[in-house]
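Researcher: Structure for this, please.
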Amino acid sequence: MHIQQQTLAEPVICYGMGVHSGKKVKLRILPAPVNHGIQFIRSDQPDCPKIPARFSNVIDTSLATVIGHEGCIISTIEHLMAAFSGLSIDNALVELDNYELPIMDGSAARFTEKILSAGITAQPGPKCFFVVRKPIKVEDGDKSVAVYPFDNYRITCSIDFPHPLIGQQSYTIDVSPASFSGEISGARTFGFFHEVEYMKKMGLARGGSLENAVVVGKNEIMNEGGLRFPDEFVRHKVLDCIGDFSLIGLPILGHVVANRSGHAFNHAFLEEFFRRKDAWETLTLRENSRDAETCRTGICRDRTEGRESLVRDTRSYISGALAV
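Model: Predicted structure, token format:
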């Protein structure tokens, strides 16, 4: 587990098309200083402010996760946000010349590859975590999202689609750069053929194609080559969850369990999470070789004064990452 903040070693450039808008876009990911967090800016709008990637700035979740501020919007951020979270990137400035991020191949694989190629560098500031102390749960009918105390960042996601090629699927992952890169980043977004046709008739999904989404027909996967994983559908839902939950502003130490959730319900969970300040605390972590046997996940218990204390020097980090 990385206990120092991290950013990119070098800038990254991506070109592509927005899946909903169909508009071409150039995206640059720039290194950023300690406590900067993830922020977006539109280069095509000189007066556009930087928009922090926080749940309080989410303005729409109907088709994708959209953030906005002072009339400026940034759409479809969840795959890039998943790459940042999965690779343990804390600080970056994302600059784009249109309002929607490029869909790339429908997954986070190309973002992940480019960031890894650019390199990741540790920064002097300590990373701050939400440490879950009590369960938090939101539910509505058969949909639910909950988080439970756990000494790592674990996600369990379950889906249930009444389609013979999908059905019930579940996936659990302890999120780390290695597990995210190998198991989750390549899982593509998916849709049903009849829904895609309807959306296109309504002027939506203008950039969608078999090149950037898994399209499910009545009895077949319509993409040449089929699926990348037998359970690619639920893996992509895990990817979306990682991206959406990163908008809480800090990495989580806890076990998130999502059942039949989506962008809107994930956002509702984040709002409830932040309201439940009795159920978590924010902590920095540091390694302490003297007390290694007593320090689960590096939470340092300083016994030099004969008492147990947790490192809590988080004021400057929280003011930058959590201000709402």
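Researcher: Any notable elements?
Model: The helical segments are 78-86, 109-118, 177-184, 193-201, 232-245, 263-275, 315-321. DSSP finds seven helices and 19 strands in the chain.
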